[in-house]
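EI: anyone free to look at a 221-residue chain?
SC: sure, send it
EI:
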Amino acid sequence: MKNSSTQLDFFIGKKIKLFRKKLKLPLKTLAANLNISLQQLHRYENGTNKVAASTLYEISKITLQPFYSFVEDWDDGHPIKENYNILLLEANIKDSDLIKKIFDDYKKVQTICINTAYKALAFIEKFMHNNQILNFMPNLIFLDLNILSMENFTILTKLREFSLLTGAHIIILADQKDNDALNKVQALHASGLIYKNSIFKDFQEQLHDILKYWIEFGGAA
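SC: here you go
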């Protein structure tokens, strides 16, 4: 990944500063909570340093802002130049079709949808034994928490291994009523959380924003 800052870095930096000031949170306090230096946080807010996805997720929790809000309204005006692969593990077939339809707004995004834990485990096992057969290296995994409940979280270990093997980050999809979603995100070491929005346009914008972030920003670890 390029070390040089981009317009997106400046955009995210401004959002961090905006949300911090809304909470009247001193720069020093946020830096301490993130376990980084004051100078490093200054560089983040000024857009001179890239913010790792894991750090941005921590900032989102501290500032009480959804992860996608840091790139909301961002538009660099450039189409996706390379193919981008998404593995969508979604228990609800209607939700799966809806999400894939949203991802299909980007012509170079390829999405594989899996609707059961059993099929997800079979896919992962097949990939780990011979990824050439599948010819599909995921860049990002969207995981519906209901998939986990199907197998009492037995998929967790395999999913972590799969994520480490492919370098794909995990974004959690949770129902609005799931009050334990954050704990599950931490258990999975996921890089983000999206609550499913019942309003299509709002949900579409959330997914567009999060996808643009990962494609443009590369998902810095």
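EI: Residues 170 and 178 are 18 Å apart (CA to CA).
SC: 👍
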